[in-house]
Specification:
- By secondary structure, the chain is mainly beta.
- It has two helices and twelve strands, in the order αββββββαββββββ.
- The strands form two sheets. Strands 1, 2, 3, 5, 6, 8, 9 and 10 form an eight-stranded antiparallel β-sheet that branches. A four-stranded mixed β-sheet has the order 4-12-11-7, with no helix packed on it.
- The longest helix has 22 residues.
- The radius of gyration is 24 Å and the shape is globular.
């Protein structure tokens, strides 16, 4: 084989290599968000007080592999609250407000909830993680009219200690629908808080 044939063969093989690399390049995946701080903010509807409970993971743990340190939630009995969130990623500078990204991608996310049975008078039951049709008072929705869950309404029942309140953010690009469940798609986070409902002096 002469030098010209050798050169042409080398060029052909290099070109073939590039073509194979481009054809076999994996599609970009939808990555779950990174959270270091998930703070629940319960604001009494009458404006009398605000209750905050922080779950913090400085490593930015993901989904069910997270290592959040979780503060308890302490609410007052027979009181209506609006629940909102502060969701941060402190692993980047400046600190990222992850809630903005979730709002921008509201058709790909939904917050699901689970709680000790009937610890709330509204909604009643145990929530919608195990039962997709469980009652939740969603106050925000995506462009398709499906619930998002960054804003919800809760009315406490009587006093109780040691109850649980679980918050699950599902990441559902291409699969969120009126029938999708908490386990469809990926888990951005899944955190269980201790919930206490006790009478308090103003």
């Amino acid at each position: 084989m002469n030098k010209l044939h050798t050169l042409l063969l080398a060029v052909f093989m290099i070109g073939l290599g590039f073509a194979c690399s481009e054809a076999e390049a994996p599609e970009e995946e939808n990555e779950v968000e990174i959270f270091t701080d998930v703070e629940l903010i319960f604001t009494a509807e009458d404006g009398s007080h605000v209750v905050r409970a922080l779950a913090e993971d400085p490593t930015g743990g993901l989904g069910i592999d997270s290592r959040f340190t979780v503060e308890p939630i302490t609410l007052r009995p027979n009181t209506a609250y609006i629940l909102t969130f502060e969701l941060l990623n402190r692993l980047v500078s400046p600190v990222e407000d992850v809630q903005k990204e979730i709002r921008d991608e509201d058709d790909e996310h939904q917050m699901f909830f689970e709680f000790t049975r009937d610890v709330f008078s509204d909604p009643m039951g145990i929530g919608n993680i195990e039962d997709r049709d469980g009652a939740i008072n969603y106050l925000d929705f995506d462009d398709n009219g499906l619930p998002l869950g960054l804003k919800t309404r809760w009315v406490t029942g009587g006093p109780v200690m040691g109850a649980e309140f679980r918050v699950w953010l599902a990441h559902q690009p291409g699969v969120k629908s009126a029938t999708s469940t908490a386990t469809d798609g990926d888990v951005d986070f899944d955190i269980t808080f201790e919930l206490n409902i006790v009478a308090q002096e103003d």
